[in-house]
Amino acid sequence: MEEYVLICEDTMEGMLTGVYEAYQIKKEKGISSHDLIHLAIARPTMNRLFTQYYDVKSDQIKAEKVIDTIRRVLGEQTYYRVCMAMVSCFEDKADTVYHTIVKGLMTKDKMIMDRLQEDCVNATFRYARASENELCHMKQFLRFSELDNGLLYAKIKTKQHILPFLMPHFADRLPADNFLIYDEETGTFGLHPQYKQWYLVEGVDFEESRINYSAVEEEYQKLFQCFCNTIAIEARINPRLQRSMLPLRFRSTMTEFKKV
Amino acid sequence: MLCNFALLQIRGLLAVWGIIVEYLEKYKNSDHNFFNMDISCSNIAVQTTVRKGLLDKLRILTDAAKYDVACTSSGVDRKGNGRDMGNCVAAGICHSFSADGRCISLLKILMSNECVYDCKYCANRKSNDIVRATFTPDEICELTMNFYRRNYIEGLFLSSGIINNPSYTMELIYHTLYKLRNVYRFQGYVHVKGIPGSDPRLIQQTGYLADRMSVNLELPTAQGLEKLAPNKHRKAILTPMRQIQNAIVQGKHEVAVYKNAPAFVPAGQSTQMIIGATPESDYQIMSVAQGLYDKFAMKRVFYSAYVGVNEDKELPAVCTASPLLREHRLYQADWLLRFYQFRVEELLNEKHQNFNVLLDPKCDWALQHLEQFPVEINRAEYTMLLRVPGIGVKSAQRICKARRSAPLDFDGLKKIGVVLKRALYFITCNGKMMYNTKIEEDYITRNLLAEHEKLPFDKDFVTYKQLSLFDDSQENVQLL
Fold first, then answer.
1. Is 90 exceeded by the pLDDT of residue B182?
2. Fewest C-beta atoms under 10 Å: which of A65, B131, B218, B418?
3. ipTM of model
4. Long-range contacts of A213-217 (CB under 8 A, 24+ apart)
5. Which of B34, B309, B405, B464 would best serve as a mutation to test chain A binding (most A beta carbons within 10 A)?
């Protein structure tokens, strides 16, 4: 049986366009089952036999149509979960998300994400959970520093690309502040101007060495370091527990672990 | 003609209105800028004048506050108001973890470590010769605002030693909170201690500014309190607890009737007690905790393993290992009370006064009640699923949701996140057990013990070794 692989961009828009195209191809070619169609975010190093490869060009309108359908038929909760799965770092995320959507739409099941026995739903669930965890970690461990113009600046390094989900949290929390979050992994900036809507910027040259911190910044960093060091009870010192709650990979950007 | 005139007038009015609106906008903005400037000015003041003092004060008053357990920022969901800094997330956010592995969620400090009381177990008792310090309300506000802004903390936890008398101290705390909420306009989380013996009106007013209030029970029984904290009385502690509980209930009614009524302690109240300083059994402690949940509608009861800081003939020796395993078991049992619908009487009784050191309370219970097992995963009620070792709240919920669409097998359970190596002795899927296992207490105990329990402290940790050999409460009795 011939299989079809659609290669789409590694963005939410790209993958959702892929879902649209998959339905289109199935209809046009009269393919018997969705199981024969796969989505991928990168071309495999070796092509398989009896498989046709197509490149999908991201299309805003097609993606929006798919989003509309998901929200209408599968509900907001499912849509959020699917989005979280799509920003995760797993290679087969596009395929699992696609098959989850197919399964859901086939039965018009708003509770599709509860059917954890199904492999694709389970994978989507796990991927979404990975993103969710990363998002939680960033809400916890992100640290702003104040620059000399009053702007708050934070650098993050995420496996899952959750910056778009992180921005609303801080925009709600610090409406009166100009702040900027820089995701080193993707080179994306999230900007929030005072009392205005936040937005994302991509592909800007950025030299970290040119940043000037404000005069009080160092003082507050010292104060916080002092606080963190003092709050621990000597009789209960437990580095293993600390490491399991706060893994080492986050510590490079955290104020309290900076060497003075 | 008349009509035209009227129109003109309306237009004129509109124009004037437009100017007023514009003026108001400007005024509002300028007010804001002024306000922002005010804060940054005070930052500079911190910079140049009080800076050195502030660092020392922070060190002293953090050190004095570190034995307080509660550092949670959960229980209230408050969106930002679009103008001021801060919001609250229902689940709470931990911003860091200190070297002892405890979470740092709030700026946990004392207002002052000066104290007129002489509680035997406390590092800040008046008979101790230590460096004393007191924060001014402005210093606390500035620290909170600046830490919060940098995402270091989720809010403020303010407690205090007793300066002069309880009411005076409570008033200082109230002033600080008032300033933080109304001058600095902080909208984040605030946890504040209610000082037993202070004027009820002060507690009432503070409650409108805080998210969570707590009054420390200090020790599980009145006798223990009398012995170790001569200035504190059980009744004086329970009175503000009851007051806060009643005010929360009343506050909820008020919010229901008047939409904008200020919320009173929206995240509920909590309390804490010290474990291991006095010879109470686990059964006594858990009964007290259950009483607090039932009768005082507590959100949380915290248990704090006693850490020796003072030499005193009434206390265990300073070198006594802190009963961490016991504290861990109490928290496990506490979870069973709050989320697994257990009652203390099921876990412990007069004959069986302390928890098993080798097994967690849920496993222990299951082994004592083997007649209720095995449980059929595809049919059992949610409450029964919760009682199976290896199935947590989340797994039980997922099982209930997943089995609606199709029956579950062991493979499905594994995917859902059930810890099968513990659960397999207690469950069946579609009438079959996973392996051919016996439902026999000794056999299951042996197998469960072979799977080493994950504890939050190291196996080679001195405390754990000592505790696995002796029952620590007994040990403390002997020491006394």
1. yes
2. B131
3. 0.92
4. A213/A145, A213/A146, A213/A147, A213/A148, A214/A146, A214/A147, A214/A148, A214/A150, A215/A148, A215/B44, A215/B47, A216/A146, A216/B43, A216/B44, A216/B46, A216/B47, A216/B146, A217/A145, A217/A146, A217/A147
5. B405
